Amino acid sequence: MNILEIRNLSVKARTILGTASLLSIQVLDLGAGEILGIVGESGSGKSILALTIMGLLPTNVRATSGSVTYRGQDLLRSSARGLSARIRGKEITMIFQDPMAALNPVFTVRQLLEEVIKEHHPDYDSKRVRGAALEMLQLVKLGDPEVTLQKYPHELSGGMRQRVLIAMALSSGAKLLVSDEATRALDVTIQAGILKLLEDLRNKLDLSTVFISSNIALAATVCERIGVLYAGELIESGPAREVIADSRHPYTRSFLASLPVPERKGQPLPIIAGRSPDPLNRPRGCSFAGRCPIVEDRCRAEKPPMLQVSDGHDVLCHKGGTHQ
Amino acid sequence: MAVSGDLTFQRRAGRALESSRTFVKLLFRNRLTGAAFVVVTLLVVVALLAPVLAPYPDDGRGVVNPSERFQKPSSEHIFGTDDMGRDILSRVIFGTRISLSISLVTIVAAMLIAIPLGVIAGYFGGFIDEILMRITDVFLSFPPLLIAIVVASFLGPSLENAMIAIVIAWWPWYSRVIRAQVMAAKERPYVSAARCIGTSDWKIMFSHILPNTIAPVIIQASMDLGCVILTAASLSFIGLGAQPPQPEWGLIVSSARTYILDAWWYSVFPGLAILVTVLSFNLIGDGLREVLDPRTRVR
Amino acid sequence: MGKFLARRLFTGAFVLFVVVTVAFLLAAVVPSDPAEKWVGPHATSEQKAAARIELGLDKPLVVRYVNYLVNLVKGDMGMSIVSHRPVSVELAEAIPNTLELVIWSVALAFLAGLFLGVYSAYKENTALDHFSRFFSISIISTPSFWLALILQIIFSSTLHWLPLTGQMDTVLKLTHPLTEVTGLPLLDSIITGNWTVAGNLALHMVLPVLTLSSFSLALTARMTRSILLEVLNEDYIRAARAYGLKERVVLWRHAIKNVIGTVVTMLALSAGNALVNTFVVEAVFSWPGVGNLIARSVMNLDYPAIIGVTVFAAIAYVLLNLVADIVIALDPRVRLAQGGN
């Protein structure tokens, strides 16, 4: 049973230089209780995907076609008012890559947290709201919740801020969490703590998660399934282990090869030559054709089809699965 | 802005702007800016050809016709006539010359004062810089119109003194802009390189740094043209600028004040001329700002 | 915070000192003889000489300057050459009238400007936004003295709804004398329950206040719009929406609270604009305020009065800048930038 289904989604931005194609995804599913990793370099459309699911795209960016279905309801079709009243915040929630930027600097943690709790529990009296706020801070394992409540965001450490943000995000009892590079701005040890927390919360609260990251190795350890974004297109998706060990798209391979690993100590890191294509001016054929080591004429001429490698492992490549 | 920081297409849009053709194309994409450019061009033509275009050139120069006083707008006098029987349209047309030249002359003069001071202060820093900053602090504590009024009232009422007052009120703003630019530019590699090969300070300042820092001041100045016209008109209105019989717009509105009960056209048309001119300059300024500001580029 | 304020106070005092000095020196070097104006065109040379001594013009410049500074600290700004009354008394009469105009204008400009700016930003790129932006830039481009005349033509000479000029009907001064409490006429008339005068004052104030507030209103709207657009693009606004808060709460609580600090500093700027515009607008409405005083002084080259008004304006702006600085310093984010509490 899929909690989230994306079909033929296309997201475009109007700019003063023309229309930019930011995202185009044919098929992407998230099963209930699953953690789905979305990886890609910056500018690949990861954040746009998160904002599309949340219905929070900037005014000049719009999903022009396709569907994003949450439990049978198309989020793109529901009116803005209906979406915010029924689903966004209540059922689907999000955490951000820079918790400092996502916490309003002029409010205390208590004001921020209690406001969200009151919104979702209008029947609570102030004592009960206070209690719920403390509970949420305990849930995200913040020491000394009483003290933390009185603080402003800038008085907290990076890890604490992210925990506060997670507490706010989950106060509504949401079932789907979109995590947009939630650990990117943190030190490695603190990062591990947050990942552990997300794992715990997932089991405790029965959360499904879209885990967006620019770190494919990190995503592979956290997620069951992984989708790779390149230039706004989902070029490969499948079980995490399979995508890592048996990647079929040349971009996924180059991406993996560019990671530093102990076995290749002393050798220079391979880099992917060239630049990802201009979103204002997408190539006619495959988006990766300009940088692909195994490019053919037809790659430049026509869009590649989505090919199935094995059950649940798809690749967007003319030569998908045939090359090794 | 963490999330939108990911929208790299915005940066691409920025890069494309580096070509000047794209810049002009973007500027004119906004129809209001385009219209404003047309209006300003027309105003310049009107100013240059005032004696040819004005239906009664002598009235523009101040010759009085007592028999024609307070004529309502008609086909003969489109904007009507004033208390001295002069054709208001002709006066407004001749006034274009005054307003446009005031704004151009004062802005250029303010830049000529501001640029050397700003460059020297920004380049040498230290004591010189400190003095310039404290002086500009005093100026920037007050709105330019106030400084212009006070200075003009000490200098005595005349158009030339009003222009001097405007220059005095305006130069500190440009000095600040240019100083900040120079301070940033002097750390750039091409300056260190010039210093290494023994180029003199003066040469570095005025042939290496200045050409690379002057653009923001010129842009700022072009945005100020409208504001200067407005300031000059205000000075004339309170009697501190142009003197009769000069056809300065603010002065015409001032003379019309006594007659607003009987001759509405006397004050309405010259004021409208100020509004249209200043609005055009301000719209161009807004257009420039929109195209140059990376945040608004996306839209 | 204390150190910051002390520094700003010092800068303010420095600015005041410079303004007073420059104004005094300018007045001393201009080619106009105050003594001659003091006694009038038909005076004998003995009378002129006596006036020179009376005005202290016979002393060296340095002595006159020091005397002026000493007197200024005591609140004495010399005698007006035109009215032969102390400048300080004339200023004291004019300031409350101007202040009342400025206060109402700023209040109107702030409320209406904020509202317009917020809706303009919120409805970005809609017809309402385009209209409001064009309206604002048109207002900014309109000479305030001309706007005053247009309002007079429409509301006084054509519709006869509002009085053309003046502060109140002269006859009321006799029939309903006003008791002075604060010095601000409208406020006093309300406090003392003098409703006839209050109504009359209010009617007279409509057009000057509309004129004075227009520029600040447009400026506030533009500023609010551009700051709010930036704030609406912040992650914390996305977060507030993502956590299911209502749009009303997101806009008027989360967004506005981050805008208001800057807009309040705009208030100081607005008050400054309104104040300088009174110099132009009061003349149109024959409003007995500081603007009228400087217009009269300028016409008659009444330098003691010109210096007096200049000093008043300098003090007003130094105070306004100080208020703006304090508002900025109170913002929690600025406290953060200065290294925590």
Fold and architecture overview:
The complex is a heterotrimer of chains A (324), B (299) and C (341). With 324 residues, chain A is of the alpha/beta class. Chain A has helices at 46-54, 80-86, 99-102, 109-120, 126-139, 145-149, 158-170, 188-205, 216-222, 240-245, 250-257, 297-301, and strands at residues 2-15, 18-31, 35-39, 61-70, 73-74, 92-95, 176-180, 208-213, 225-230, 233-239, 306-310, 313-316. In chain A, the strands form 2 sheets. Chain A has an 8-stranded mixed β-sheet, sandwiched between helices. A 4-stranded antiparallel β-sheet of chain A has the order 2-1-4-5, covered by helices on one side. The two termini of chain A are 33 Å apart. The mean pLDDT of chain A is 85. By secondary structure, chain B is mainly alpha-helical. Chain B has a single domain, classed as MetI-like fold (Orthogonal Bundle). In chain B, helix 6 packs antiparallel against helix 11 and helix 11 packs antiparallel against helix 13 (264-292). Chain B is elongated, with a radius of gyration of 23 Å. With 341 residues, chain C is mostly helical. Chain C has 2 domains: 2-73, no CATH class; 88-340, Orthogonal Bundle (MetI-like fold), CATH 1.10.3720. Chain C has helices at residues 2-29, 34-39, 45-54, 61-74, 87-122, 127-140, 144-158, 170-175, 185-191, 195-232, 235-242, 247-285, 290-299, 303-330, 332-337. Chain C is globular, with a radius of gyration of 24 Å. Chain C starts with a helix and ends with a helix. Classes of the chains: A alpha/beta (324), B mainly alpha (299), C mainly alpha (341). Chains in contact: A-B, A-C, B-C. Chains B and C meet through helix 7, helix 8, helix 11, helix 12 and helix 13 of B and helix 1, helix 6, helix 7, helix 12 and helix 13 of C.
